[in-house]
């Protein structure tokens, strides 16, 4: 049985990816900060017959990331890493607080790097492995009222492109996924999107990411 680790797997796109991979027989490891949300999502997935492990840690904290990944690797091999956890704060640049900016850079950029760094050696030792970085169309072009978020996603894109070059001769395939808006809790604290129900369902995007990832190329949708 192959194992996929999905950061931010308790809600939104991460949760839908967990459902999709579990449906195809993967053991799914979902992570996030909030243990209660993780346990609730684990219970839901188990009802659908999934084999699910949870691990609660903050990807902003390098030390916690290392400890959590080391603990997981004592019991499981990981074949696929999906760097999905991410946050967004939107509005005109002057309206963003220092905390908003730190939160986006520390989660989206540093968190993705810390988790990848903790797992890369293990993934290289698998016969075949994948890293899928969930970026966004915000990693492709600039957008009004999204300055710092877009900056963080361009950074994730740069990280992804460089990983591809650095690990080109290894058994790890690196994929960037660039999607537009999805109807997820991501927008709950924001008025940047007026009606999130008009956005695509995350389940639809999860199916596409899952299907296209087998081609080993970036996914732009
Ligand atoms: N929704 C969209 O329109 C959209 C469009 C394009 C790309 N994206 C990207 O898609 C990804 C998933 O977003 P989503 O829409 O599914 O949002 P979501 O429902 O808010 O999910 C975000 C997940 O990340 C986790 N997370 C946040 N900060 C974390 C931290 N510091 N450490 C560990 N886990 C953390 C959250 O769990 P906890 O709160 O429990 O930590 C949650 O499970 C993000 O990278 C986002 O940028 C979203």
Q: How much is the radius of gyration in Å?
A: 16 Å
Structural class comes to: alpha/beta
Give the overall form: globular
What is the C-level CATH assignment? Alpha Beta
CATH homologous superfamily annotation: NAD(P)-binding Rossmann-like Domain
Describe the protein's topology.
Elements: E1 3-7, H1 12-23, E2 27-32, H2 35-47, E3 51-56, H3 62-75, E4 80-83, H4 98-125, E5 129-134, H5 147-166, E6 172-178, E7 182-183, E8 200-201, H6 202-213, E9 219-220
The structure holds NADP nicotinamide-adenine-dinucleotide phosphate.
The site of NADP nicotinamide-adenine-dinucleotide phosphate has 31 residues, from helix 1 and helix 4.
Fold and architecture overview:
The protein is globular. The chain is of the alpha/beta class and 221 residues long. Strand 1, helix 1 and strand 2 form a beta-alpha-beta unit. It has a single domain, classed as 3-Layer(aba) Sandwich (Rossmann fold), CATH 3.40.50. Helix 1 packs across helix 6, helix 3 runs parallel beside helix 4 and helix 4 runs parallel beside helix 5. It is 45% helix and 18% strand. A 7-stranded parallel β-sheet has the order 3-2-1-4-5-6-9, sandwiched between helices. The structure holds NADP nicotinamide-adenine-dinucleotide phosphate. NADP nicotinamide-adenine-dinucleotide phosphate (NAP) binds next to helix 1 and helix 4.
